[in-house]
Input
Amino acid sequence: MIKKIVFGQPIDTGTVVKSQKTESPAPVPGRETGRQMPADEPAEMQEQVYTGKDSEIPYFSIRWQKDGAEAVLTCGLAQDDMIYGLGENVRGINKRGWIYESNCTDDADHTENKRSLYGAHNFFILDGMRAGGSGRRLGVFVDAAQKVIFDCGYTDSEELTVTVSAGGFVLYLLEKESLHDIVREFRRLIGSSYLPPKWAFGYGQSRWSYMSADEVREVVRRHRENGLPLDSVYLDIDYMERYKDFTVDKNRFPDFPEFVEEMKGEHIHLVPIIDAGVKIEEGYPVYEEGLENGYFCKREDGREFVGGVWPGRVHFPDVLNTKAREWFGGWYKSLLDQGIEGFWNDMNEPALFYEEEHLKEALEKLGEANVENMDIWGFFDFKKTALGIASRPEDYAKIYHNMDGRNVCHEQVHNLYGYYMTRAASEAFDRLEPDKRLLLFSRSSCEGAHRYGGIWMGDNQSWWSHILLNLQMLPSLNMCGFLYCGADLGGFGSDTSEDLLLRWLELGIFTPLMRNHSALDTRRQEAYRFGHQDDFRNILKLRYALLPYLYSEFMKAALNDDMLFQPLSFVYPEDVFASQVEDQLMVGESIMIAPVYCQNAGGRYVYLPEEMKLYRFRGLDSVDIEILPAGHHYVDAALNEVLVFVRPDHLVPLSYGGEYVAAVDNSRLQLLHFVKTKAVYELYDDDGYAKNVKLEGNITKISVDSSGEITVEGAAKPECRLM
Ligand code: MIG
Output
């Protein structure tokens, strides 16, 4: 059962696609994913409008503050209640004990004292079904475009409060038996997740920035020479002419279309970045068209809003306006026409280095300061002024959107901007390339954006703790619909080290987006820069060997509104220990992973909720196999070893690898197997490009019985052997 409660007059976020019982999700305009409805009936939706009575809201009590503007929903927490979800955020899988804010923020410092990162993911599950819990199990989604604060037992350890800033919103309460079913119910409410092309499951190399075509050629050559598989190279902002979107610097990349083709000949996709801000420059067509048609965000007085980002002074395309969105999306064509098949959207919180008028005020104030009569408080005030110029809430509040005739202050819709920038691109792709999947992922996002693209986790650091953060975010993002995601492997900021990169890749080989990316002025971290080439090669090869399984599990999750990464407690709900595990994950239906994330650790403690078979890979030809009983173990894992735990009566199909995705041959498979009675695996595969995909007709059923006999039936007839 879903309860929908409407508070005030909410702005339509476009996040929920299903509004009524028995109705299948409304097709998202311009987008037919060909998804099948899961066999079970969609839940009933009970709709009501809040008229001011506490009794209208189950589970929560409500209080209003700031003259009735802010809604504060409160519910008690029992000692062992857990909170899952909230998507992209710092801290653990269980969100209990901290306070989170949905307020998309450009913050490159993901330390645990932070409350917001780039996304606004307002879905969580309150789970009190274990001993010591409250006995409730409930999914909660706050459909709102403005700031929302989730105090998960931080202010008062026995209380959960959700504070929604001024403006209407819709509250959805989802009741289902299992954690897993609550997630599926929510995902059906918000529509199917984005499907990337198959090549986007290959390894990608990125850097801020590869400065020329020759530098990119060198990156590709060195991967190929060292036998390091690779499918894509990312172009960061310096490929553009003075950071102008949809331009290519002719000195650095002469004859770009030819270069794109040359790279395709090497089986490499180039993936350029697109920033939110459009440079103010006469003669630049994107600027001129946007200005002429009124497609940029305005100030209250109707003048265009001026911000400062990489291109210098910019206007922001008003992607919340249908016409402006169509227009901005249309510009991606200029790069598609040059052979590009993938993009990453950046700076779309939107990031604001400064707002012009405030910058003027601040400069004046700083100019008046003088050493002679500045006391220490005056100094701190000076410092605060100088350091507080970027991303000020007061500056965001100066932005206005024309939401199809309605003039809306940015404060009311801040969390939608990145979502709608990605939507602009995706809707354009549907018009321009109706049959072909393209790669698209974004930095900022909100639920709803998961239908249009993936996300990366933004500017992490080359820190060991960020491997764990990467792991912990994965299931939370999956709950919120973001399946195509991953972190900057090796770490974005700060200098990486060889062991850090190896360990991070050992997690990264399981994430759909697998990209090594690093910042300007940090140590170079392409895999070929380091000594132990055999180890890098073996780990990357294992990713390509895992592709049949990962692609299959990804597509099944996307088409069934399921998760690819699950916390252990979702699979073993009765197991008290499983619910406390914060550093292991279930990946798809057959695997558990437990990566090492501490420097100089030669192994780690692992909890097994049931007996499992451990494959310890040093490479595809060098594997230890061992059956471990349920319980706690210390498991060795040297720097060059990847641990894959296979569940009883499960299979994992592996390919023999390949230098790039298109070279991976699914007609010959090796099976990781742990068969006690019988294991059946449904392997999904397709051409890797078609948009309208169905599971039906693309499944090969592989069975292994207890004697080791293999049977294959269905779409393909791969030659299989046991590993
Ligand atoms: O202000 O384009 O998160 O991946 O390399 C920094 C330069 C802007 C932030 C992105 C990062 C990218 C960088 N960008």
Q: What stands out?
A: Residues 208, 236-237, 273, 346-347, 443, 458-459, 517 surround MIG (CB under 6 Å).
